[in-house]
Design a protein that fits this description.
GO terms for molecular function: peptidyl-prolyl cis-trans isomerase activity. It is built from eleven helices and 15 strands. It has about 475 residues and is an alpha+beta fold.
Length: about 475
């Protein structure tokens, strides 16, 4: 089960028909209550059922809502009747199943009579979707084709290392040799793709990739020693070097933005935003290893303009303008949201999602994950950062409200993807402070948000 998020409404999806009894926290603790309601949210896709909604109600609205429900006998009796019918259907289903097992004859027509249609489809897409922010960000860098081939060959080793018991070291060795051959044979073309002012730095990194302490030659030796831990460390080092070279190869966007979107701020590369979080009730965050209790905690987010230039650009401008300083946070089981910021001056950016395998983002449209469409920046990663939906239309992102996604595979489909995958503009990942996210509670505050890297990559409309 998952919470699709929007600026004012958080919709609750479920894969089974279940009755949910509201459990309201005492209104004296929080100024806002999240309440399960039974009204349905319409969907554009007839194959997808309408979903119950969760409204964010004030104390006053909540009291009125509860007062309206005092006269409940009719609904109560109807609920009992429905419950009895469900029990009867379950009993009949058990009897039919017993008959079918003992005498396997076709029961034509009975299935449609007693079995309710599924309200959600479980799917099993490509299991190689990035599972960490670091991996997703590395895959999102637009770089030289040869470098991408080296990267993919090395990343395959990450999956091979997950195989329990006996590791396929022979296959790993073949992958590294393939990457090493490309690195040697294509060295000139790879270095030629670097900007002139970055060639010296690129050449140093490239030499390190081949023969350095954490390079491909050293990785081969670790594989020959058949030491999984050493292989894992060496692989991480080689992939970090690959990513550094690729970032040098990608000084700007690899595509042209549509003309109608040139009046938005845009980020033409990567940026790093640092949040300082403070407890709203005066309590403390858990200490770091061997440290003391902390009154504040730091979270760093890498913002990716390569895949979401408009969304990242709007967010970075808000950070620079100080729009998030003092913002309060709200928590659900699967997200930490900033407040709605109705008095903030952000841009109404269209929903922006870069599909995997494509060269430019799609605008104002979601992805159909069940048909195999996957985003370059997946939501199904713990600490993913995305914009909530606009209150007016789900074709646009909120001009201000963002959220940290607390991915949990227990609330995902068979392929391990969130049921909200492909529905939001993801623009970055939490790289530092992921352990802080589960400690955040409703009422905690962003003391400050600042851009520590990437301001030179922000282009404002009047600079176009």
């Amino acid at each position: 089960m998952a919470f699709p998020l929007s600026s004012a409404i958080i919709s609750y999806k479920h894969s089974l028909n279940v009755s949910i009894t509201p459990s309201f926290p005492k209104p004296s603790f929080l100024p806002t209550q999240f309440v399960f309601c039974s009204n349905q949210m319409p969907t554009k896709d007839p194959a997808r059922p309408a979903r119950p909604r969760i409204h964010c109600l004030s104390k006053k609205t909540l009291s009125e809502e509860l007062a309206d429900r005092h006269d409940f006998p009719t609904n109560f009796y109807l609920s009992i009747c429905r419950h009895g019918i469900k029990k009867l259907e379950s009993l009949i289903a058990v009897i039919l199943l017993s008959i079918q097992i003992s005498s396997p004859l076709p029961l034509v027509g009975w299935d449609s009579l007693f079995i309710s249609p599924a309200t959600a489809v479980l799917y099993s897409p490509d299991t190689k979707v990035p599972r960490t922010g670091e991996l997703a960000l590395r895959k999102a860098i637009p770089a030289n084709t040869s470098m991408k081939t080296i990267q993919e060959s090395l990343e395959d080793i990450s999956y091979l290392l997950r195989i329990p018991q006996r590791k396929p070291f022979g296959t790993m060795e073949g992958n590294v040799k393939k990457a090493l051959k490309i690195a040697v044979d294509e060295k000139d073309s790879i270095l030629a793709s670097l900007p002139t002012n970055l060639k010296e730095k690129g050449s140093t990194l490239y030499a390190s990739l081949i023969d350095g302490k954490g390079g491909l030659q050293a990785l081969l030796e670790s594989i020959k020693d058949k030491d999984p831990d050493k292989v894992s460390v060496g692989l991480a080092s080689s992939l970090d070097t690959v990513a550094e070279i690729e970032l040098l190869q990608a000084p700007g966007l690899s595509f042209l933005l549509p003309k109608q979107y040139l009046n938005y701020p845009r980020l033409t590369g990567r940026g790093i935003v640092e949040f300082t979080i403070e407890k709203g009730d005066g309590s403390t965050f858990s200490p770091e290893a061997g440290g003391e209790l902390r009154k504040t905690a730091t979270i760093q987010v890498v913002v990716d303009g390569y895949s979401a230039p408009l969304t990242a650009g709007n967010f970075v401008k808000l950070v620079i303008d100080g729009a998030y300083d003092g913002a309060k946070l709200n928590c659900t089981d699967q997200a930490v949201l900033s407040d709605s910021g109705l008095d903030k001056n952000g841009y109404n950016v269209p929903l922006e999602i870069m599909p995997s395998g494509q060269f430019e983002p799609l605008y104002r449209t979601t992805l159909n994950v069940q048909d195999g469409e996957l985003p370059v920046l997946p939501l199904s990663v713990y600490g993913a950062v995305a914009m909530a939906h606009s209150e007016v239309s789900e074709e646009y992102s909120s001009p201000y409200q963002f959220f940290f996604y607390l991915y949990d595979k227990r609330n995902a489909g068979l392929g391990g993807l969130s049921f909200d995958e492909g529905q939001f503009s993801v623009f970055g990942y939490t790289i530092v402070g992921k352990d802080i996210l589960p400690q955040i509670k409703t009422g905690d505050v962003i003391r400050s948000a600042k851009l520590v890297e990437g301001q030179d990559r922000l282009i404002l409309p009047n600079e176009s």
